[in-house]
């Protein structure tokens, strides 16, 4: 494809993307909400009304003009902590999924394309990792790596990797048996070019959908690990950590749990909604019926 063709194709793809958003309200709302979270993350210092870590004598104060969502048990502004917890939660989600992709994609493609003993060994490793409950494996890996957000999300990424590897392995097996891949081999195309040019573009679509679902899972995993004290460490906020502190005072100040809980719920719904819309958009049977 020459430069002129690429220049023409790019606006066409953008127009197609806008048409998709206009025709799919769920995708538009999900992307709009996630874009809003990105803007809030970048502009957190401008949006927050107080420091997220500054303590005051106003313990568990109700919402008012000074503290829009009240204060927590240490007198810290809940609104500011929710705002500053947004980038932590987004970074955690994308870090975990990125680690899962970095590990799962190459090993899954290797198993699917090479087959034989390589496929057997990698498949047995995948089955072994999948036999452990996800949160238990994440806690174990976090304990081995050390407490902290980065290590916790690396642990979650390791938990995600077997699912990604298994999915891309199956897709690679299907694609490598197609006639166009056989033709590429017969013309002497190197293996790495066959994988990059033919296998990856035609096998990656289900993985894209799975990634959006895993982003929601990573968000919930971060909340769970922070709830257990293995994620973001005090005094810096995350939504999961705020839930953990709010849970302690649930009987006397239940509103402490509402905002971070609703934030986690809406973000997970946005990830899942986007994934469902992408699944429908990328479904080959749906495209064939048009």
What does this structure look like?
The chain has 290 residues and is mostly helical. It has one domain: MetI-like (MetI-like fold, Orthogonal Bundle). The chain is 77% helix and 0% strand. It contains 13 helices and no strands. Helix 6 crosses helix 7 and helix 10 packs antiparallel against helix 12. The longest helix is centred in the first third of the chain and has 37 residues. The chain is globular and about 75 Å long.
Task: Write a short abstract of this structure.
By secondary structure, the chain is an all-alpha fold. The protein is 77% helix and 0% strand.
What gross morphology would you assign?
Answer: globular
Q: How many distinct beta strands?
A: 0
Number of helices: 13
CATH first level: Mainly Alpha
Largest sheet: none
SSE string, helix = H, strand = E? HHHHHHHHHHHHH
Under CATH, the homologous superfamily reads MetI-like
What fold name goes in the CATH topology slot?
MetI-like fold
Beta-strand content estimate:
under 5%
**Assigned CATH architecture:** Orthogonal Bundle
* Percentage of residues in helical conformation: over 70%
What would you report as the Rg, rounded to the nearest angstrom? 23 Å
Mean pLDDT: 84
Number of domains: 1
Could you name the ranges where pLDDT drops below 50 across 5 or more consecutive residues? 1-8
Structural class, please? mainly alpha
| Cα distance spanning the termini | 26 Å
């Amino acid at each position: 494809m020459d430069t002129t063709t690429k220049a023409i194709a790019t606006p066409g793809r953008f127009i197609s993307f806008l048409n998709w958003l206009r025709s799919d309200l769920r995708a538009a709302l999900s992307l709009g909400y996630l874009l809003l979270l990105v803007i809030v993350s970048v502009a957190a210092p401008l949006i927050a009304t107080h420091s997220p870590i500054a303590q005051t004598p106003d313990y568990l104060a109700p919402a008012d003009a000074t503290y829009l969502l009240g204060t927590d048990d240490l007198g810290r502004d809940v609104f500011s902590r929710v705002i500053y917890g947004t980038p932590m939660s987004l970074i955690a989600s994308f870090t975990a999924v990125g680690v899962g992709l970095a590990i799962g994609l190459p090993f899954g493609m290797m198993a699917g394309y090479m087959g034989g003993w390589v496929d057997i060994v990698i498949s047995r490793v995948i089955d072994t990792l999948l036999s452990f409950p996800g949160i238990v494996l994440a806690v174990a890996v976090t304990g081995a790596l050390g407490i902290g957000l980065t290590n916790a999300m690396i642990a979650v990424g390791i938990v995600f990797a077997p699912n990604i590897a298994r999915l891309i392995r199956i897709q690679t097996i299907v694609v490598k048996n197609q006639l166009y891949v056989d033709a590429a081999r017969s013309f002497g195309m190197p293996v790495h070019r066959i994988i990059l040019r033919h296998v990856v573009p035609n096998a990656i679509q289900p993985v894209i959908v799975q990634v959006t679902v895993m982003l929601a899972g990573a968000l919930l995993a971060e909340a769970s690990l922070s709830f257990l004290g293995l994620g973001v460490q005090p005094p810096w906020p995350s939504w999961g950590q705020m839930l953990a502190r709010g849970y302690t005072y649930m009987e006397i100040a239940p509103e402490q749990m509402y905002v971070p809980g609703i934030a986690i719920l809406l973000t997970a719904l946005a990830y899942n909604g986007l994934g469902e819309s992408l699944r429908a958009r990328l479904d080959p049977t749906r495209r064939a019926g048009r």
